[in-house]
Amino acid sequence: MRVDVSGLTVRYGDVTAVDDMSFSLSGNKIYGLLGRNGSGKTSLMSTLAGYRRPIGSVQLDGEPVFENAGAMRNVCLVRHTPDAADKGDKVAEALNFGKAWRDTWDDTYAHELVELFKIPLRTKVGELSLGQRSALGVVIGLASRSPLTMLDESHLGMDTPTRYAFYDTLLNDFMAHPRTIIISTHLIEELASLLEEVVIIDSGRLVLQEEADVLRSRGTEVTGSASDVDEFTAGLTVLGSKSLGRTKAAMVYGTLDDSQLIRARQLGLELGPIALQDLFVHLTEPVGGKR
Amino acid sequence: MKIFRQVTASLVAFSTIVAACVFAFVVVVTFVVSAFRGVEISAWNIVTSQIARWYLLWAGVYVIHNLLPIAVAHGRTRREFLVATSGFSVVLALAMTLVAWLGFLAEGGIYTLMDWRADEHGTPLAYFLMFLVWCTVGMFCAAAFDRFGAGGIFSVPLGLALVIVTTVRIPGSGNLPFIRNIPSLLGSGWHVMSVAAFLIALAGTWAIARDMPIRLRTS
Amino acid sequence: MFDDRSPIYRQIADRIKADVLNGALKADEQVMSTNQYAAYYRINPATAAKAFQQLVDERVLYKKRGIGMFVSTQARDMLRAQGRETFFGEVVDPMVAEARAIGIPLADVIRRIEQHENGDV
């Protein structure tokens, strides 16, 4: 499912959560929506799911989504406290709403997943542990089999084995039923290999949208003597640097051309790749530091 | 249609079971009371004219506060949901009126058998309209609180005015302040006022919930 | 599973090449599907597909429409030839540099290699 966002703004009173954002997703991929806390991820996804009226335009396959029954049918957003699971309802009852109200719902699959994640059916949603509630969100999200499925911080409270079960399930279901999946997460390192494309937002604005593999090859860590590194990186986009004695390492963003590679070798500089997570940290505003 | 069917089927069935339990309970209570003193009022009348309306109010609140976010989260529009639940409120009020009436019939039988005295109760139409308005006022106030937070408090005076209108035709649920005479002058014509109250509550619900954002559930 | 420090598809391609070189994958043998690779390595299927495409471009693999990917007949010889080209530059030279850095005389290194040749190690 194709997603087109244009001039999207979300405001809560005086706070601007999403600020004039525009981008398009071609669809049928797993997208990573990365951003720091309060960067506007949840607000953005909420408008994509028709949870709130957008200022600007949000279109799914060319159709505006807000209060449009045809487009709404194809969307499922699971926020970290699942909206489709009322705290007072038992898990089984929460799943029944999906079965009753969603045309694309796969109830057999939902129950397989409940068993996989060991979620007790007879327990009230409000009495589940945080990890179990997150897992229930994943069940609702995946069993919905929506052409656009969004999972917002779905890993919260899950222990490591559960998170890995989640990644495997997500991947296998995506391969069996290809659709557009958007995942927001803080655990970039763990999830990075699952993502085909990455959208990074910060302070309600789009920072970049790029294929994950391309992005990974964009960052280079240049290590060597401080003066050489400074000479080499002059005029390049330097995301950050650190020094140890006379040695300096600088993170450069952008593809290096052949003449630059040759120059680096002449200066005896070491060039290494940067992990997606490190790139993300440096592309978004650092905590208590300057950009 | 899916929403209407699901909500109606589950909540009407639930409400009927609750009502049946309450009926059994009041019958037991009545028998217990009869051991100490003579029975002079209908216990079921207290339930239907005093307590049931609060249940209907709760049902209205539940529908908007709890079910609306689930519907939107499952890819339904607010419009679809409001169409379904507007219809639901009528069906629930009808069903509860029917249950109330069956209760009166059953209770009447018991009272005759035991030679107890029952007081006067309202007409089915009066009950139906009372239930209907209380339910939709619940929807209206829930929508206002969900949408405006504490500002929803401003919906309460209007809600109160709307529900009071309906109690006029129900004996034993109190008279209106200041305008005691008008309702009795109008007689059954007063029901028109109840219908108007229903329409106002419903229109208010639609106006507020039609494009209401779905907020994060707090955990 | 992956160090996340170079494009994953290149790491996958390198692993398949290594399997061809060490004989784990034989000529005209079918390799696993992109989805199987994706599930096994927990990576996006598009990434696996990209690795396969690279190997097809390098003529290590060939595609049979509707069936899958196979190791090409000349793949092993080709990879061995490529390996021989880069062997001294990528393996021997760094080894010599390392030996010098830690103070092992090259004569000792040569003696060790001779022992390998005589089957003494």
Automatic annotation (TrEMBL), chain A:
Per its UniProt record, what SMART domains does this chain match?
A: AAA (SM00382)
Q: Which SUPFAM superfamilies match?
A: P-loop containing nucleoside triphosphate hydrolases (SSF52540)
Q: Which residues cross the membrane?
A: none
Molecular-function GO term, any one: ATP binding
Q: Does the keyword Transmembrane apply?
A: no
Keywords in alphabetical order, please: ATP-binding, Nucleotide-binding
InterPro entries registered for this protein in UniProt: AAA+_ATPase, ABC_transporter-like_ATP-bd, ABC_transporter-like_CS, P-loop_NTPase
Q: Where is the ABC transporter domain?
A: 3-228
The UniProt entry, under Pfam families, shows: ABC_tran
The protein's name: ABC transporter ATP-binding protein
TrEMBL record, chain B:
Q: Which UniProt keywords apply?
A: Membrane, Transmembrane, Transmembrane helix
Top-rank taxon of the source lineage equals: Bacteria
What are the TM regions of this chain, as residue ranges? Answer: 12-35, 55-74, 81-105, 125-145, 152-170, 190-209
Q: From what organism does this protein derive?
A: Lentzea indica
What protein name does the entry list? ABC-2 type transport system permease protein
Lineage summary = Bacteria, Bacillati, Actinomycetota, Actinomycetes, Pseudonocardiales
UniProtKB/TrEMBL annotation, chain C:
The record's section on Pfam families has: GntR (PF00392)
What are the protein's UniProt keywords? DNA-binding, Transcription, Transcription regulation
The HTH gntR-type domain, residue ranges = 6-74
**InterPro entries in the cross-refs:** Tscrpt_reg_HTH_GntR (IPR000524), WH-like_DNA-bd_sf (IPR036388), WH_DNA-bd_sf (IPR036390)
The answer, when asked if DNA-binding is one of the entry's keywords, is: yes
Which superkingdom heads the taxonomic lineage of this protein's source?
Bacteria
Q: Which PANTHER family match?
A: GNTR-FAMILY TRANSCRIPTIONAL REGULATOR, HTH-TYPE TRANSCRIPTIONAL REPRESSOR YTRA
Q: What is the protein name stated in its UniProt record?
A: GntR family transcriptional regulator
Source organism (scientific name):
Lentzea indica
- What are the leading ranks of the lineage? Bacteria, Bacillati, Actinomycetota, Actinomycetes, Pseudonocardiales
